[in-house]
């Protein structure tokens, strides 16, 4: 099964962003805009995992969550990754968020899961590039329109193990979740 570990975001923060994106979507129809119900902050992409690994992975993810306290975050700014992704960034407790992502990746590696070794860049993918007239769509205008976005702050207090089923309408199903429980 295809899995990732996410930091679920509160509905209010997602609704606020969705409302702000309305005019951006209308002015910049070139990207494929990701529906808000599929927005999440990926802490670690795990890929295809054998079901037999789930008990140990769950135990290790619970430990990683217990070492992190709740985080104060806000959706803030925006940009793009090449011609593939338009994103909204984060502000707030970014150092503890990065440590949490590193702990989640380490938990997966200790379970025998090969996790990419790359720098964690907290972002919410809001649109994906597509080919228009044989050329990649220009994502720069949409990314520029999001650069000044500043959402309200919120408290993130749990992580989730999520199953991803690909297709024209990908489906994400939370398999388990753990509170960020360390004392501040």
Intertermini distance: 35 Å
Number of helices: 4
Q: What is the CATH fold-level name?
A: Cyclic Phosphodiesterase, Chain: A
The CATH homologous superfamily is named Cyclic phosphodiesterase
**Strand content range:** 35-45%
Structural overview:
The protein is of the alpha+beta class. It has a single domain (2-179), classed as Cyclic phosphodiesterase (Cyclic Phosphodiesterase, Chain: A). Helix content is 29%, strand content 38%. The chain contains four helices and eleven strands, in the order E-H-E-E-H-E-E-H-E-E-E-H-E-E-E. The strands form three sheets. The protein has a five-stranded antiparallel sheet. A four-stranded antiparallel sheet has the order 3-1-10-11. The longest helix is centred in the N-terminal third of the chain and has 17 residues, at 11-27. The relative contact order is 0.27. InterPro entries: Cyclic_Pdiesterase, RNA_CPDase. The active site is at 40 (proton donor), 123 (proton acceptor).
Give me the secondary-structure topology.
Elements: E1 2-7, H1 11-27, E2 32-33, E3 41-48, H2 54-66, E4 71-81, E5 85-92, H3 94-110, E6 123-128, E7 131-132, E8 135-136, H4 140-146, E9 150-156, E10 158-165, E11 171-179
Antiparallel strand pairs: 1-3, 1-10, 2-6, 4-5, 4-9, 5-6, 7-8, 10-11
């Amino acid at each position: 099964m295809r899995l990732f570990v996410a930091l679920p975001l509160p509905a209010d923060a997602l609704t606020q962003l969705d409302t702000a994106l309305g005019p951006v979507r209308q002015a910049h129809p070139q990207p494929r805009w990701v529906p808000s119900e599929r927005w999440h902050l990926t802490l670690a992409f795990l890929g295809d995992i054998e079901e037999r690994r789930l008990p140990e992975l769950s135990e290790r993810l619970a430990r990683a969550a217990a070492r992190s306290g709740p985080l104060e975050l806000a959706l803030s700014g925006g940009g793009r990754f090449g011609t593939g992704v338009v994103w909204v960034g984060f502000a707030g407790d970014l150092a503890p968020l990065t440590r949490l992502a590193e702990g989640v990746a380490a938990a997966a590696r200790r379970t025998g899961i090969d996790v990419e070794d790359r720098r964690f860049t907290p972002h919410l993918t809001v649109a994906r590039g597509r080919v228009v007239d044989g050329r990649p769509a220009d994502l720069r205008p949409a990314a520029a329109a999001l650069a000044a976005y500043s959402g309200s702050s919120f408290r993130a207090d749990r992580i989730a193990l999520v199953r991803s089923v690909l297709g024209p309408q990908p489906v994400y199903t939370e398999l388990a979740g753990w509170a960020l429980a360390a004392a501040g």
